[in-house]
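Hi team,

As requested, here is the filled-out complex form for the magnesium ion run. I kept the field names the same as last time so the parser does not choke. Let me know if anything looks off before we queue the next batch.

— J.
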Amino acid sequence: MSSAEVAVQVFKELENEDFRILNIIEAGMSKHEFVPKEQIQKHSKLPMDRVDFILGKLNKLGLTYRTQETYNGHTLNYTGYDCLAINALVKAGVIESFGQTLGVGKEADVYDALNSEGRRIAIKFHRLGRISFRQTRRKRSYSREHSSWLFQSHIAAEKEFEAMKLVYSKGVAVPEPISHNRHVVAMGMIEGAQLYKYKDIGKPEKILKDILRNVRKAYLKAHIIHGDLSEYNIILQPDGHLLIIDWPQAVKTDHANAGEYLERDIKNVLVFFSRKFNVDLAAKSACDYVTGEARNLAF
Ligand SMILES: Nc1ncnc2c1ncn2[C@@H]1O[C@H](COP(=O)(O)OP(=O)(O)O)[C@@H](O)[C@H]1O
Ligand SMILES: [Mg+2]
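And here is what came back:
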């Protein structure tokens, strides 16, 4: 089971008071590695035996870690953080029900859901530090680093949502950005597979042009460079249209290293098309086209 699947299961077992306690722990984590039980109780305005019961439940469900070393303290893990984000999105009417995992990427779990109108949407849970987190966890002193990963994932989701909104509004082919909360982004659900998975894509030259047309639009109209473009972040849909996904590392075109990012994005795509489909295009021609220095691509 992916972490998101665990959260979706556990989410159903949570009541208002459980969420209240999770929220208090989250707020306390800005100051404490482990939020002291007394502080949680104070903010909850619940009797201590009730707080003890809830903290035990949250821990048993795998939403929190606790320390007993010098004091009794509690901290959220990704599952706890997932539940808070899910709860907010459900309350906001963004999510009505969950389906199943769509993809487990290197830094995110993507989940299928329905909104209140019965439309299928994709829910992306950012999971920065997942790998290093496992390693630090083994060393048993994980939580300071861990809480910073939750925070970094929150930032990543925020950045991705903002970048997607901007490029979407300029007509770049991306899933429709719907909403975001904490480390989670809700977006339009897409059919199709990552470009690298296709053996035959019909007219590769046409697809390459289509990709570069979108990179150009993002650059010239939204002033954004994807920053992690490759055959893994381009989805080819059954109808032959493509979508560019995975935008958390997008940078503005006035970023100090914008030129390097753009060149790397373009080269990733060109190398892929050259190796896999024998379609060759000079990087200079592609870059000039994307930045508006040339009106057309010179194949
Ligand atoms: N809007 C979406 N609809 C359907 N599947 C998606 C959507 N966004 C992402 N996915 C699936 O989830 C995988 C991981 O998403 P991605 O945004 O690339 O995150 P990362 O690579 O950082 O883990 C994708 O390769 C794709 O299979
Ligand atoms: Mg990706």
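Two things worth flagging: The chain is about 45% helix and 20% strand. The chain has two domains: 3-187, 193-290.

Thanks,
J.
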